[in-house]
Amino acid sequence: MKTLLALNWKMNKTPSEARAWAEDLAERLSPGDAELAVMAPAIALPALAAHLPAGVSVGAQDLSAHESGAYTGEISAAMLVDVGTRYAVVGHSERREYHGESDATVAAKARQAQQNGITPIVCVGEGLDARERGEQVPYTLAQLAGSLEGVGEDVVVAYEPVWAIGTGKTATADDAEELASAIREALRERYGDAAEEVRVLYGGSVKPDNIAAICAKPNVNGALVGGASLKVPDVLGMNDALK
Ligand SMILES: O=C[C@H](O)COP(=O)(O)O
Fold first, then answer.
1. DSSP 78-90
2. pLDDT tens figures, 178-230
3. Where in the cell does this protein reside (predicted)?
4. Which pTM was predicted?
5. 99 Cβ partners below 8 Å, 6+ apart?
6. What ipTM was predicted for this assembly?
């Protein structure tokens, strides 16, 4: 299966900046072994769909758990599909923390994505407390079970320890593999043989100089990258490191 380099811009870049970034990438990207996907603010997705180089996917950072109707401010899966969206991040720790999203909400969003042909990237991961208690595996697996309720196997799982996000503290490649292998086992129980085809990503302070070691681990099939996704040279560096 192809390694996935998922670039999460978070709340950065206007549509004009997104277009310039995509044009710059298109000029400089030499295709590697990884699949690239850009998870941008929804308002920038049409510009990305029009200007990203061929083969680079468009992704959303969130979507509504509802199909359509009276949900002011929400963006539906069908709207995202209409502008060329292939992936959607759901349950990022920032949405869980700042927008009160529960595992049940995350699962509802993932189901909504799948019903419309979007592959959800379901995020899970422990905070510092659970890590310091040595409970990172049971904590993360409990979150995963709730977040995958009723969700089919066309899914990507991103393990992001909250203490490593945007802090410069990267989990070691062995830490990433510990959780990725536990997640794989849980996916086998849920999906059987199809679990081998589910990509498990690591996220948290991934950069050009650490991505190769992390993605070389047997159960890590890519990365979800925040800070290092904003500058084209960093993205080229990560893409090259995965060749
Ligand atoms: O979605 C991406 C993650 O939250 C990681 O962010 P970061 O690479 O800035 O630590």
1. HHHHHTTEEEEEE
2. 999 999 999 999 999 999 999 999 999 999 999 999 999 999 999 999 999 99
3. Cytoplasm
4. 0.98
5. none
6. 0.99
Write the pLDDT tens digit of every residue in 22-54: 999 999 999 889 999 999 999 999 999 999 999
Which member of 35, 94, 126, 160 is catalytic? 160
Domain extent for 97: 4-241
Return d(Cα 126, Cα 185) in angstroms, integer: 18
At 84-128, the pLDDT tens digits run 999 999 999 999 999 999 999 999 999 999 999 999 999 999 999
CB atoms closer than 10 angstroms to residue 113: 29
Domain count for the chain: 1
CATH of the domain at 159: 3.20.20.70
Nearest CA to ligand 1 atom 6: 226
The pick from 95, 160, 162 for probing ligand 1's pocket by mutation, whose C-beta has the most ligand atoms within 8 angstroms, reads: 160
Structure tokens at 41: 């603010």
27 is catalytic: no
Question: Ligand 1 pocket test: which of 4, 5, 8 has the largest number of ligand atoms within 8 Å of its C-beta?
Answer: 8
